[in-house]
Every structure is written in structure tokens, then in C-alpha cells.
Prior knowledge:
The chain has helices at about 15-25, 65-70, 90-100, 120-125, 140, 180-190, 235-245, and strands spanning about 5-15, 30-35, 40-45, 50-60, 75-85, 105, 115-120, 130-135, 150, 165-175, 190-195, 200-205, 205-210, 210-215, 220-225, 255-260.
Amino acid sequence: MTAYAxxxxxxxxxxxxxxxxxxxxRYAGRWDSGFRQPVFSPAQLEYADGMRIELLEPGAEPSSxxxxxxxxxxxxxxxxxxxxxxxxxxxxxxxxxxxxxxPIQVNLESEMWKEAFLHPKATGxxxxxxxxxxxxxPADLGGDLPGMYRTPPWPAPEGxxxxxxxxxxxxxxxxxxxxxxxRVLRDVLGGVETxxxxxxxxxxxxxxxxxxxxxxxEPGLExxxxxxxxxxxxxxxxxxxxxxGEPVIPELGIRAVDLGTSAGAGGGHA
Length: 270
């Protein structure tokens, strides 16, 4: 019933070409695929450790939920959700209900992609949780349908591309309280919790980034912690320092840092 991967972080953006070059150039992500649809258009960039960043662009329809989400704060970009992959979504949703979290927007009709969400008002996480059971990658699911982008819709970054994509070993955020967060991340999604210091814990899954959360402050995602050297280790001090000191990148709507070039590169959590 538990998740086997923190699969991706989704960012709502006005346009793929706004955020994509930042993720591909500055943080060495590799384009996976994109798919244009009437309501919303998802695209994903992949990183060395299997993590992905998803870009949600509003579709042409005026009622697009992505447009409403961005317009609510007049923002060029905002973190939207984190997706956890599971092997038995019905069991996971049953466990969520047992723990007091009622799933929303449940869609189990497709054999290729089943999904449901947990609302941030219920979880206190400050971001939407998507639970998904998938029969393949986004590129697999899209096939050769009209609207599929196999190459990025922006010019290649200047300079020599990195030999390997960067890693994305950690994502940080703030929550209302760690007890409620633990009920979702540990009891429903099977994350392994490691207390790090007073008010801060990390959660890990067999695949994907570690999720590092601190209690207090406005709930929500704060930082994408990359490593341009492809390593997957991190130090808590580096994460917290970047989360507090780095400016929000307007094109992404979230802070980001390359730990591989910071003073604390190497060692720490693996």
C-alpha cells in the first residue's frame, strides 16, 4: 500500500519555455517529454537519480485550473504538487481513509494511469499530494498522440552540455506540524522518517528525492536542492541555509541551489 518513489515535484508555470531553460541550463535537467492539452499541458525534465520536475502550463481553455492557481497570487510560477508512485492505489487510498485523510479527485478508470490527491488543508503539508499508479513513463503514456513534444520547445542552452544530468537529492519545505505530516508521509505513504534536529525531519523512499520538512512558518515547498556533480548526498545545514538565504527564482516560483558547488559539498546524507 505504500509508495515506492517520490517521483516528481510539479511547478505551475505560465509557459514551459519560461522555466525549462532554467532547469535545463542552470541545473542540467534533461527533457523527457511534454504534452499539450486543452486544460493543462504537462512537461517533465529528468535528473540523474530518476527524479523529475514537472512543468504545468495552462491550456487554451479559460477555465484551466493551472491559470486559476497562478492568478490567485498573480504569480509567474508556484509549486503545485508532489507525486508519489504506488503499486496498489486502492490499498493506498484505503490506508489514507483509515488515517483520517479523504482522497479527492479520485480517477481509477484508466489502466495506464490511476490517480488521486490529498488536499493540503487536510494534510497541513502546504502542497497537494498526488498518489499515482502508472503503467509507464509520461513519454510511454503519450505515445505518438498529437500534441506530444519529444524535444524541448526552446533553444539548446549555450555552452557544452553536462556529460550527465544533475541529481536532485532533496526537496525542502515547511509544515504546520510534523505529527500530521508524519501521518501522511509515514503512515499512508510509507516514508522512512529520520529526525534531524528539533522541528525538522527527513522522509525517504526507495526511489526519488528525500523530503526534508521543518515545522513552523507558512506551510509549503521552499527549495529544490540539486547537485551538478550527480551525487545524491546532502547536509542539513546547507539545505536550511539555502532555504533561508537563496532568493525565489521567479521562473520556477521556488528557491533552488546546486549543492555540488556549495561549501558543504560532499558527505552528509546519502
